[in-house]
Design goal:
598 residues, alpha/beta, Rossmann fold, nine-stranded mixed beta sheet, 20 helices, 9 strands, elongated
Length: 598
Amino acid sequence: MTSVDGGFRRRLGWVNRSLEHRTRWWIAVLLGVVCIGLGVWLVAAPFRSEATLRWLIAAGMLLSGVAEIASSSTARRPALARVVGASWVVTGLVVFVVTSLTLYGIALAVGGVIVVGGLVRIGDALARRGDDRAVQLLAGITNVLGGVLAVAWPAVTLLVLAIVFGVRTVVVGLVAVWSGLSARRDRRVATSDDRTADATTAPSRWRLVGAVAAFGLLAGATVISAAVNRVGPNEPDAFYEQPDEVPDGPLGTIVRSEEIDTITPDARTFRVMYTSTGFDGDRRAVSGLIVVPTAPAPSGGRDVVAFTHGTTGVDPGCAPSLLDEPAAVMEALPQLVAAGYVVAATDYQGLGTSSRHPYLVGDVEAMNALDAVRAARLLPEADATDRFAVWGHSQGGHSSLFTGQLAASYASELDLVGVAAGGPVPDLVELFEFNLATPVGKILISMALKAWADVYELDLEQVVTPSAREAVEEIAEICVTDLRQILTRVPDAALLGVTFLRVPPWEVEPWASIVRDNTPGGAPTGVPMLLVQGGADTIVDPALTQRFADERCADGETVEVLALPGVDHVSTGFEGADQVTDWIVDRFAGLPAPTSCS
């Protein structure tokens, strides 16, 4: 951060003169080349490892401190400048020695030192006159803003520090090479000093322009940080408050309901809270949506489609029923309503309601979905039958498969006719391995690990490094349905490229059992299945879905694979909506199910 202030050029001049006076020219050139190479390497990929990032930041702070102390004689208040330099040196040593200090802790420490340095520069500026006063004042304010930004958004701070220190290393290397080559030409020391002074002391107006530019950059970054980090999940209102006592009676009993603005044409939409089974096996209140066609119901009533939504997040505010546009995460909703079906869409436990969300915990997702069907049957406006199909994509595909496995034992009074699953997360181990190196994958894995640590009451640091824990927990607070919220956590995801898993969760208990128990395919479904898979899916490998289909075929299940060439993961559910709806219509009609089994 301090490399952008007006004094950095002065420090480069000090380095330049020191090299010319005290170092053999070839040593200077050699050191310069090494610095250039190291700096380019760091700038190109600063997040190679936690140790590299820690060393880089520590070295940068030590160099800053030494340069500050060395150039303190030119300050109006040399003693204060030396104090600032010493604080940089001490903080750098702490970062280097205290390995238990988290990455966020490093950012906070750096932010504090930057603020102190900025305040000293502001005080120094008040003792000056003319343009130089304005330059120093802007430099001080810029540092204070940089320190505030460091504290407010530590992940960005680490990213900026890594790149800034890398750039600084390149610049110092260039100065060293230039100084060495200059000395080799055997120019007089006095001439070299004059040239160096001319090269490193900018005219006042240009120094002022540079200070204004640096101030504008940091001020803009601070405003962006404040605006972006203000975005977060919606706050559940009074509707989502858990009742003091969950009602007895059949599961699916409606605790409360209200009609809201419709989320799709030709339908009425009801927000409901109903009883279901929670992760702990106790009766819980779960929220969701029931969408009812406005067209008259047929004489026997309307059949039901249980819709299981994909990943929205693990924070209570990420419930689909809380979103401004729930239809944006409900693939095939218009088509299903047009076909005359009631759509029962669970939020899942912990989304909307204030309990922990068992993300990718298959049995809980399935019980919540099955009880949403029961709730639809108890909603008078729905006029629903006991026949239902289930459809979901991504996390919803995972939920859909588990709903098919659990339906006969958990809700035997309901008649399941078919299971449709898009991008269905068929193997959690390979899903994690496939996505471990990507930013999106790190976000999804962070959500899963944080959710499992909460619901299974496990220590997250058993599988996540201490340095990564804060980033994992920060990521788990966003809703992935909002691009603005995702952007706030991109730097955190980048930090997970430095340090993430202490040990793969599928290799250590009890995490390995959790992964295994929540991988679908452990029980027969007994009804036709449709697996929808995008050919360009970079989150769920198409090969995993095909292998899952082959295994189900080998078990005697009826499975059709609908491949969508060139379609990515996010688009799969919407691109396949018409075919999914036609397939569901045929299942309710009792037509023979197509199969991809050989």
